[in-house]
Amino acid sequence: MLFMEELTILIVEDEQKIANTLKKGLTENGYQVDVAFDGLIGERMFLANQYDLIILDINLPGINGYELCRIIRNKNQQVPVIMLTALSTMNDKLEGFDAGSDDYLIKPFEFKELLVRIRALLKRTQHQQLPTGNILRINDLEMNLDTKEVKRNSHVISLTAKEFQLLEYMMRNKNRVVSRADIAVNVWDIDFDTKTNVIDVYVNYLRNKIDKQFPDKLIHTQIGMGYVLKEY
Ligand code: CA
Prior knowledge:
- The strands form 3 sheets. A 5-stranded parallel beta sheet has the order 2-1-3-4-5, with helices on both faces. A 4-stranded antiparallel beta sheet has the order 6-7-8-9, with helices on one face.
- The chain is 43% helix and 20% strand.
- By secondary structure, it is α/β, with parallel strands linked by helices.
- The protein has 2 domains: 121 residues, Response regulator (Rossmann fold, 3-Layer(aba) Sandwich); 95 residues, Winged helix-like DNA-binding domain superfamily/Winged helix DNA-binding domain (Arc Repressor Mutant, subunit A), CATH 1.10.10.10.
- Helix 2 runs parallel beside helix 3.
- The chain is built from 8 helices and 11 strands.
- The site of calcium ion has 5 residues, from loops.
């Protein structure tokens, strides 16, 4: 079998026996594998490397799997995340998906089952990445990250640099409510004064440019919580 490139998987799991068993099994199946035994190290490895898939335990020292999953999703919407947990209640499952994971496995699980899910998720993303390239899309709105061009229904929309950054952040977090604090940290500076209404002003600029002349609205206000760029 020919591998075009080796796919790299990050495993964040504090139970060393499980982590080592997974690493061995995945390596035997042709994947390159990195392991972190704690949430903070997992975060550092995610930020420093390019992974094709991430396997996250939920109960971890440092930061837990849910928090780490949210951090991953803030930076990268594409990378598939599978969560592992010993807990099997419905709430945990919902919280996992809410944090942005793509799939979920309850311990103990068969290695074969994990492998099937990994292959399915990788097939999906590898397939998606070919035609999309460096373009973010939501309905008829598209943003080309290489050319910095934004279009809605094929009309070119001209944005300032800040508007572009704000829209990019919202597109990467599409269908998720982002608070003003999230926007401040990710689009403005960490020490941005959230008491000013600058964020609301910029969201309105974006509304005027991408929503006003179109019947279907993408930007929605979630009163008391923030904003969401939502698919219709
Ligand atoms: Ca654990």
